[in-house]
Structure prediction request, 440 residues.
Amino acid sequence: MPPRLTCSARSSIGRALQRTTASSTRIPVLVAQGTAGVTSRQYATTGSPVPLAGLRLPDDYIPPTQPPSARRPEQRKAQLLRAYTAMLRSTPLILFFQHNNLTAVEWAAVRRELRAALAEVPPPVAGPDGVVPADISSSIELQVLRTRMFSVACKIVDYFKAEDQVHKSNAYTHDLSKTAYETIKGATVDESSTYGQISPLIIGPVAAVTFPSVSPAHLAAVLKVLAPSPPTFPAPTRRKSPGYHDPIAQSGFHKLILVGGRIENKAFDNDGVKWVGGIEGGLEGLRAQLVYLLQSAGLGLTAALEGHSKGLWLALEGRRTQLEEEANGGKKESDAASETSA
Amino acid sequence: MITRFITEVNTRFNPFSMRSRATRLFLSYLPPNARATGVQINMTLLPRASAEPSTLSVKFKDGKELKLDGETLGIKGIIEEVDRHSRALQKQADLADG
Prediction:
């Protein structure tokens, strides 16, 4: 026996009734059909007294079979997934740390020291066009990830391209849509792809430090605090930041392991992250190095090209003065001039 | 997991390898106060390109050193092996106390 109700109440009602923004009634007006006073059974097709256009659901109608979630919005999985995909799309530099059973006070100490170290990074200077880039130190955050959701979000970001889906009849192309789900379900993960390399990192307890832009100065400051390695990234000294050497903070730092990073959609290991952190002066510094390289090459080239003509001119000039000295009275002035011109 | 009798943990793993998973997870099984209670924990991270297998060795208070292969045992197997020896030590300690 087929079910009496072929689809859910919400969808069938929603399809049948037109919602208008002007609705003010709280109760679904379907009930209004009963007011016609007809005792016999009445079907919608036999010309109901209330026209269909007049039947509408209130805009804030909540279907009884699908009550709103009781979870806090930021903890809902849908919201978490959206937050992670948005973060992955907008964050060029993420560092992944494994955190092994940090206590709440240790987290507080770690965050405090991170904040203190970032506050010491000098603010960005104005570029050549006079625009001062935004100071990102206040937006660098250390957050614990829900690894499974984050892994799925990584996969969506890497494999699901909403632009490719536009021509399809299914119009839903957001990250929570069925299209996105089917895309990542059918995707074959390649070892060399970004997701293939990132996914082993996101195992177990993982926290992430997110940077809104690639700034080696800030990256170096974070590395000095969270993953110090003496020659290039020494830990802060005891005199300069006593809070860093606090036993609680120290035990917190011991439990954080830098496992890797994701920089500009590429997976980087420890050495790669340290290499990026070691770029002097950031992107501007790299640009300055390039400009210097090009300029010095140009100087060498012009000097080399100039050399011959300069030598020729010097030789001729020397010859002219010599001839002038020989003539001494202007007797053979014209000859010297003709020689020089030849 | 019984961690009372562990004195030293040495790990060496490549986080970019899926097979180092059990070794990494073992570190997260150590209690928050492990270092404060005298357990020495050494970690070495291998670079991404290295194909070295991940290693895990656990030393106990009686001097026994367990070398565990996380790649074949898995995290459950590691915990089982460590607990197997810890339980024997626990038994001895209980008898000595009682």
